[in-house]
Design goal:
Oligomer: single chain
Helix content: 25-40%
CATH class of the largest domain: Alpha Beta
Number of helices: 17
Radius of gyration: 23 Å
Pfam family, one: Amino_oxidase
Cofactor: FAD
Strand content: 15-25%
Largest sheet: 8 strands, mixed
Domain Amine oxidase: 64-476
Bound molecules: flavin-adenine dinucleotide
Organism: Streptomyces pyxinae
Keywords: Oxidoreductase
CATH architecture of the largest domain: 3-Layer(bba) Sandwich
Number of domains: 2
Length: 481
């Protein structure tokens, strides 16, 4: 495939699939038509003559959907994975920029992600430590101050200790966040802004916390719940070291590599790309799933593994249960979730930059030095940054590295992505108590999966997606046996 910038593993998988049915390739309809007898009547967007009959229809080929499909396939069930995009991975997207492999979505893993670590081990995949910063630029009394990473870490550790104080009591079992429901009820209504206000910090200390959380909340610390992050803090062992481990490692072969291995280990699962699902209808014998091109997928059960923000784009009959319907209308994913890869020229140190809540780029993370000189940086945009304006991006970098020159940059705006409509999940105040555990419960023969509804590493981690994929597969198995 000319100009295919997907990583080799993705090309190989898609290539296998398309090669089986050249007719489909020509029509550009689906990437895989493994179901016997499937015939294309028209081109993309036209009707299909026959439906696809399987045991289970999985909607969405992100980590949650593929985990569920792999598990169900291993149990002998036939599975159709129906995916809207022309690629797998969803909010994980390994691509290339400036000749380098880059992650446009999630990029880091932690040894504390137990399920994901077990998957890496199972398929013989390794992880590598990320670049360690040599300098930190942090908010000061008048503008920014340069600190050693150790000094910046010590200060953040002190501030986080205050911010997350009490989490050992209200999240004593962080994998089971409602274990102390009555204590959680006292903190779940708090936003980041509320919690910072409670601490009565100096202006500079408050600006550190606001600046730290702003990229996670999409620049709106008042809109997201502090318990989302308190749970990650708890899962990391209630320490700053554990917090830092969350982003300390990267998969050596890229974030999509594990997903490819899981797909390859799913002989009874077939993947249908470019097939946005529009409706999910429960029937007397199971579930009928219809894609935009009209093709019906008939299953004895279905797993809905699309982001919560996308549930409202699918017509469910009967309608979603109240807890899912409320979550769909409120949303869980952060709207302003724009990740930038920035190629800087010259001899640039591994500078970590943390801005204030109003900075155009409140977070900059150093990445690899480039072979021909210069360095790659990852940035997260604040509301005021126009990411298509190279000068604006350069000015945003210059708040941390005066005189830096941007050679080129690439921005992925997840809030504008048609099949995510948001980035990582971060619960709103009150959502933890409102959503769990109801949001994980099946509705008839329809089950739900996705990082946004995980019990443990909720929202911003493939660990949570895998957790829910395993749960959904178990629920389906119970239904079908
Ligand atoms: C910028 C960014 C940074 C992140 N950083 C990290 C990180 O460092 N580490 C980490 O572990 N995680 C990180 N995350 C979070 C992680 O990417 C997600 O939690 C995880 O990928 C979610 O997986 P999922 O399967 O639940 O959903 P998704 O990956 O969103 O998969 C859902 C799939 O459903 C498909 N779909 C949607 N609608 C339809 C439809 N109607 N019909 C058919 N298919 C549909 C989508 O195309 C998609 O492929 C990050 C996310 C973002 C956006």
């Amino acid at each position: 495939m000319p100009n295919d910038s997907r990583p080799p593993a993705a090309r190989r998988f898609a290539g296998q699939v398309v090669g089986r049915r050249s007719l489909l390739k020509a029509s550009g309809a689906a990437a895989l038509a493994g179901a016997a007898g499937a015939t294309v009547l028209g081109g993309a967007g036209k009707a299909y003559a026959t439906d696809v009959k399987v045991d289970v229809v999985v909607i969405g080929a992100g980590y949650a959907g593929v985990t569920a499909a792999r598990e169900l396939s291993a149990k002998g069930y036939s599975v159709a994975i129906v995916e809207a995009r022309d690629r797998v991975g969803g909010r994980i997207w390994t691509d290339t920029f400036a000749g380098q492999r880059v992650e446009l979505g999630g990029g880091w893993v932690s040894p504390d992600h137990k399920l994901v670590m077990a998957e890496f081990q199972r398929y013989g995949l390794a992880n590598v430590a990320d670049v360690v910063p040599t300098q930190s630029v942090m908010p000061g009394a008048n503008g920014f101050q340069a600190l050693t990473p150790e000094a910046a870490g010590a200060k953040l550790s002190e501030l986080f200790g205050k911010f997350f104080a009490g989490s050992q009591e209200y999240f004593p079992r962080p994998e089971d966040p409602l274990f102390k429901r009555e204590l959680v009820a006292k903190v779940d209504p708090l936003s980041f802004t509320d919690r910072i206000a409670q601490l009565k910090l100096s202006d500079v200390d408050a600006s550190w916390l606001h600046g730290y959380f702003a990229p996670y909340t999409g620049g709106d610390n008042a809109s997201r719940s502090m318990t989302s992050m308190a749970q990650w803090w708890a899962l990391g062992g209630y320490t700053y070291e554990g917090w830092e481990r969350q982003t300390a490692f990267k998969p050596t072969a890229g974030m999509t590599a594990l997903l490819q291995k899981m797909l390859e280990a799913s002989p009874k699962a077939k993947l249908y790309l470019k097939s946005p699902v529009t409706s999910v209808t429960s029937t007397a014998t199971g579930v009928e799933v219809r894609a935009e091109n009209g093709r019906p997928f008939i299953g004895r059960a279905a797993v809905v593994a699309v982001p919560v923000s996308m549930w409202k784009k699918i017509r469910f009959d009967p309608g979603l249960p109240a807890v899912q319907a409320t979550a769909a209308s409120e949303g869980v994913a952060v709207g302003l979730a724009t990740k930038l890869w920035i190629h800087l020229s010259g001899n640039v140190d591994a500078v970590y930059g943390m801005g204030t809540a109003s900075s155009p780029m409140p977070l900059m993370i150093p990445q690899q030095a480039m072979p021909g000189g210069g360095r790659m940086m990852v940035g997260f945009a604040g509301p005021s940054l126009n990411v298509s304006d190279k000068t604006a991006v350069q000015n945003a970098v210059r708040q941390f590295i005066p005189g830096a020159t941007v050679v080129n940059h690439r921005a992925q705006e997840w809030g504008r992505d048609p099949w995510a409509q948001g980035g990582w999940g971060l619960r709103r105040p009150g959502q933890l108590l409102k959503q769990l555990p109801g949001i994980q419960q099946p509705s008839g023969r329809v089950t739900f999966a996705g990082g946004d509804i995980a019990s443990g590493w909720n929202g911003a981690f493939i660990e949570g997606a895998v957790e829910t994929g395993l749960r959904a597969a178990q629920q389906v198995t119970t239904m079908l046996t």
